[in-house]
Amino acid sequence: MNLMEHLQPHVYIPLKIGDIDISITNAVVAIWIASFLVFLTLTLAGRAGRLVPKGIQNFMETLVQFARQTLVVEILGEEGVAWFPFIATLFFFILYCNLLGLVPVFPGFTPTSNIWVTASLAVVVFICTHAAGIAKHGIGRYFKNFVPSGMPKGIAGLVLTGFMLLVEIISHVARPFSLAVRLFANMTAGHLVIMVFISMIFMISAFITPVSVVMAVVMMAFEIFVCVLQAFIFAILASIYISLAVHAEH
Amino acid sequence: MDATGLAQLVPGLAKLGGGLSIGLGALGTGIGMGILVGKAIEGMARQPESAGLLRTTMFIGVAFVEALALYALVVTFLLIF
Questions:
Q1: How far apart are CA B70 and CA A113, in angstroms?
Q2: Would you call A3 and B74 a contact, using CB atoms and an 8 Å cutoff?
């Protein structure tokens, strides 16, 4: 159906290395623009360097302070500030990628509406949580923490341990999966709803245009809120998972 | 009915399954979110000083519950297209 083909990327420069297709599509250009914007706004805000900030430095400082306080310090504690660059990068990059998809000009593609982008970010968070836990506790003790102590002896103990291990492993695997799918589905569904409203104009008649446009504007406003919320949720969940792995569990 | 007759039903049944998937998925999600936000507002009414913390936690809860509805939406997309 032609609904999904609007969400496929257009190829600009076809490139191939052997069998792998790495052509420059508008999705690639969109991610480049998002990362360049993150770098640009944060560098410009940092360079101004006034003691009493104003303008873009003020705005960026609000976001950075929010990221530092709510995302890192409240969850990981004071010694967790080492994680602040990672979590703040996640937050800003996802925020800019989400918001870039709302602008209808040039790339016109939401990078985070591609499951591979969100899956890569989720895999990075997954590796970080387990690496943090292993670095803090050591490999043996970290995996021992999966099962609570005080198990009954004998066959019942063995079965119970196996069962608890299975539950823990499933919940650990479900986390990056849910992170990726949450971000991907939120972005794709929002854009699809807007597209459905606008295409109602073509499919029904021209008289429905006022209703359609009003609904599309309302959905756009809601989309802006969803974009910011989803970036915040991704970052705070990454922070919570890291804190769960690092702080002593039982 | 012969085999070709039954096989003709499959695309229609897939779309029906897609519609059912998102409908039932949104059902439980709506109830869950209603309970969640209601409890958050109740807590904020009892103790207005903790409104900030309650608001943040409520948003995290909303994201978890919404993710379940979005899993259903993903299954709908898989079934319809």
A1: 13
A2: no
In chain B, domain spans: 11-80
Contact indicator for A91, A235 with CB cutoff of 8 Å: yes
Residues of chain B whose pLDDT is less than 70? 1-3
Domain B11-80 has CATH 1.20.20.10: yes
**Res. A153 pLDDT band, cuts 50 70 90:** confident
Show me where the domains of chain A are located. 2-246
The ipTM is 0.74
The token pair at A37 is: 């914007």
Cα distances from A165 to residues A129, A130, A137, A146, in angstroms, run 18, 16, 18, 6
The token pair that represents A104 in the structure block:
């209808």
Give the gap in angstroms from C-alpha A189 to the nearest C-alpha of chain B: 8
Whole-number Å distance between alpha carbons of B13 and B48: 51
CB-based contact B60 A230, cutoff 8 Å: no
Q: Are B66 and A181 in contact (CB under 8 A)?
A: no
Listed in sequence order, the DSSP H helices in A49-114 are: 56-66, 74-76, 84-100
